[in-house]
Amino acid sequence: MAQIGMAGLAVMGSNLARNIESKGYSVAVYDIDRAAGQRFMDAYGDGKFEAAWSPEEFAGKLERPRTIIMMIRAGGPVDSLIGALLPYLAEGDILIDGGNSDFHDTRRRLEMLAEKGIRYIGMGVSGGEQGALHGPSLMPGGDRAAWEHVKPVLTAIAAKAPDGTPCCAYLGPDGAGHLTKTVHNGIEYGEMQLICEAYHVMRDGIGLRQEEIAEAFGSWNTGMMNSYLMSATIDILNYRENGEYLLPRILDVAGQKGTGKWTVMEAAISGVPATVTAEALFARFLSGKKEERRQAGAVFSAPDLPGMDKGTVADIGAALLAARIVLYAQGCMTLQEAAGAYGWDFDIGTALRLWRGGCIIRSGLLGPMIEAFREQKPGNLMVAPEFAETLDKTIPSLRRIAAEGALHGIPLPAMSSALSFFDGYRCAKLPANLLQAQRDYFGAHGYVLEESSGTSRHTDWTGKGGKILSGAYNA
Ligand code: 6PG
Q1: In CA terms, which of 117, 160, 300, 408 is 20 to 30 Å from 68?
Q2: Using an 8 Å Cβ cutoff, are 48 and 26 in contact?
Q3: Residue whose C-alpha is closest to residue 38's, from 9, 78, 81
Q4: Number of domains in the chain
């Protein structure tokens, strides 16, 4: 009998199963595709693995209560697998979905399975194939008692943060785990786009050679600026095939699998201006319109300006840091607002601690962020003293880069939106007074005066004067 079941033996499932086995657990493995199961057993069958070839056999090979981790493609396949396993599960068994599932699906599945006495955990897993094998960041949420049961194995296989604590902790009930992974990915989108924009400025704005760009990123990759994604970028920039850099030959079209979109959708539902992730997502969509871009490029030319000054490089690192702080601040707002809307007991500090190791967004920013939330409990990360001070120093660089980009026709949607958000956030008087009036003009939505403590009024703006309404109708 095996202690843990792994369903899904593509690279993430295989590596996670191997990680679990390496910590001394026996693992039953199953894949709907027999060939995948066979390949796994051919490669690793000498370990403490038992193969199962049907859901029934799989369930039969597991100690009770059963613990099954599903590592399969999100969406329909998860429902199908649950449906296939269900007849062979018993009350108290634990199902863990480790895929990038939409947390709304997780909420639905949890409720459906709870009625049948099956305990469900939606768990974000980050770190790619190497992370799965050597230590991923694990973001579990859902049934609390089930979490207590699986805690030893999950904390054993998780990455360790720089202070040695496992990057795995219970995040909250319901879909809290998968929401946290979704927002993790939303931040991932923002981080990647910001780095891409820095690369674009250096490549096309200043005209640096690729080795110079790698060198610039290398010089910034320390302290708060250090990140896994920055290190990955440096490796990519330095990579050559037959002596030639590979990067310039790659098609400039980026896909996506949904998590960034869900972050933006959830932010919109919760009323959070997660502008940097939104722009990062839209930049991917725009990249997909390759043929249209090619045609438009023949219609419109770039501004006729000499290249940017080489001295601009010095500003790019600081601009990146400023924009990343805004990105993380928005990510934290999204998580907190969404978790609050669902009534979850959710601690942002716990989520940040899980991101210190193993995951794709691990970076030097997280330590100071955790301190900021622990000590000052700021309403917003940007106003915590250490971050306010850093922004004070770096925002002027972001202004210069955003302005230079605009003048030279280099699109910097994520950097520019980070700057606009920062300026909007620190602006005590936005032009929304005019917006209120416009809504009232055409829709009689009512407006509130600064001095009126919330009483709504409506005006006939073509000249007949205002009248006070008891509440804004059409609000
Ligand atoms: C991770 C990654 C991982 C995967 C993303 C990519 O945390 O390990 O986020 O989950 O690489 O799904 O997402 P896109 O295909 O949407 O870029």
Answers
A1: 160
A2: yes
A3: 9
A4: 3
| Nearest in space to 263 (alpha carbons), one of 358, 190, 348 | 190
Residue 470 has what pLDDT?
61
Atom number of ligand 1 nearest to Cα 188: 9
Residues of the chain with confidence (pLDDT) below 50: none
Q: Tell me which residue of 276, 355, 358, 284 sits closest to 323, measured CA to CA.
A: 276
Strand, coil or helix: 451: coil
Separation of 136 CA from ligand 1 center, angstroms? Answer: 13
Residue 475 in domain: no
Q: Is 54 helix (H, G, I), strand (E, B) or coil?
A: coil
100 CA: nearest ligand 1 atom: 10
Statement: the pTM of the whole predicted model exceeds 0.85: yes
Range(s) of the domain holding residue 96: 4-174
**Is residue 281 located within the same domain as residue 143?**
no
* Residues framing ligand 1 (Cβ under 6 A): 100, 126-128, 185, 188, 256-257, 259-260, 359-360
3-state secondary structure of 69: strand
Task: Decide: 156 and 324 in contact? Cβ < 8 Å.
Answer: no
* 205 and 314 fall within a common domain: yes
Query: 456 with 308, same domain?
Result: no
Cis before 65 (ω within 30): yes
pLDDT tens digit string along 301-313?
A: 999 999 899 889 9
Ligand 1: which atom is nearest the Cα of residue 136? Answer: 8
Q: What pLDDT is stored for residue 379 in this prediction?
A: 79
Contact 431, 420 (CB under 8 A): no
Q: How do residues 35-92 score in pLDDT, each as one tens digit?
A: 999 999 999 999 899 999 999 999 999 999 999 999 999 999 999 999 999 999 999 9
Whole-number Å distance between alpha carbons of 395 and 387 = 11
Whether residue 109 contacts residue 97, with contact meaning beta carbons closer than 8 Å, is answered with: yes
What number of helices (H) and strands (E) belong to the chain?
19, 12
User: For atom 12 of ligand 1, which residue has the closest CA?
Assistant: 257
What is the structure's pLDDT at 453? 79
C-alpha neighbours within 13 Å on the C-beta side of residue 312: 25
* Beta carbons of 153 and 68 less than 8 angstroms apart: no
Q: In angstroms, what is the span from residue 468 Cα to ligand 1's centroid?
A: 53
- Give the pLDDT confidence score for residue 473 in this predicted structure: 54
- In the block, residue with structure tokens 């001394």: 24
Write down the pLDDT at residue 196: 98
Instruction: Say if CB 237 and CB 217 are below 8 A apart.
Output: yes
- Interhelix angle 176-200/103-115, nearest 10 degrees: 170
> In terms of domains, do 396 and 263 share one?
yes
170 and 210 belong to one structural domain: no
Shared-domain flag, residues 165 and 234: no
